[in-house]
Each structure stands twice: as structure tokens, then as C-alpha cells.
Amino acid sequence: MELIFMDRTPSLFPPTLGGPPGLRYEPDFVSPAEEQELIGQVQRLPLQPFQFGAFEGKRYVASFGWRYDYTKHRLEAAAPLPLWLLPLIARIEAFTRSAPIRQVLCTEYDQGAGIGWHRDKPHFDEVFGLSLASQCRLRFRRQNGSQWQRFTLEALPRSLYMMSGAARQIWEHSISPVAARRVSITLRTMRQSEA
Ligand SMILES: O=C(O)CCC(=O)C(=O)O
Asked: Which residues of 66-101 are buried (b: 16+ CB within 10 A; e: fewer)?
């Protein structure tokens, strides 16, 4: 089945979310039928356990465009962006008016898997996350003197979040262990020096 996206008027996300500046959230970015199609495409990929140095995560990933190698500590070229991702990429670029998306990470989380606190690698610029199959708690924190400022986004299935500005560069984020299997597609633009 070919993935045909609904025609959406390009717009910016509504500014009502609260939380870190630069964090945006759009519920129902894809329809239930599109969600099923995308989940099927991700499940057909040769997903590999996430490798963090010597450690393997309880999540399974495939990278396109570029991948960050946590053993070699450097960015490496990955397989080209597959055709089935191109309509989604075009839609996100139009909706967010972003620079071209050059890197995509497809991830499947086992029940109970999450991601620890981090900021995405500095080679990347804006980050977009499409949540599929189940919701997750996307947590943000920032140290302010001896205090931590915190914010949690409940990212529902079919929603898109965007991290730019302070949410991307200053705040850290993590994903709490998920209650049910979750699939995500993370898309990134490149920093000017890497583009
Ligand atoms: O699965 C997600 O939505 C976020 C993934 C993430 O934070 C990462 O891969 O760095």
C-alpha cells in the first residue's frame, strides 16, 4: 500500500505547550492508517540492538543518512533515506518550515525500555520525533543553580514533537521506560558546518 499523507496546510505548532522554549508538539500528525503503514515499514527493517560502546540497549534501531558511532565517537555515513520515508520527511519539512532533514533513526522499544538523560549530538540541529504504537513520557530537565527545572511531555501515538533552540541545545531529555512496545521515527537536520 502506498503511503498517501493527508494534505495539511503548512503551519507552525501552536505556542501553548509550555515547557522548554523551542519544544513544540502536534497531536495526530499522522492518521491511524498511516501509523500502521509506518510501523510495518519500521518492522521490516533490519533493526539492530542499540550499541552504546560495549553496552546494548533494549531498543532496536536503524539509521539513515548519517549515524553516530558511539564506539568510534564520530558521525558516519549510513544507508540513503529510503523511498517510503520521503513523503513523511517532506511533510515535516513543510509543516515546520525546517531546513532539509538529512538523518533519520527508526527505533523499536521493548516494553520497559527507555532512554537515559542526554542531548542529541552537536552534529545535528533540529530534532523531530514521531511517536507510533504507544505513548511515552518524554522528560526534560535543566540545571538552574542547585535546582533542576523539569517538564514532562506525554507524547501520544501519532504525534510529532520538535526540539529546537533551548529545548534542543540546553535542556536534556530522556524517555521513561515505556509501558508497551513503542516505535519512533526521529528525524534531524544537520548543523550548518555538517550540512
Ligand atoms: O524515541 C524518541 O522519541 C526519542 C529518541 C531519542 O531521544 C534519541 O534517539 O536520542
From this structure: bbbeeeeeebeebeebeeebeebbebbbebbebeeb
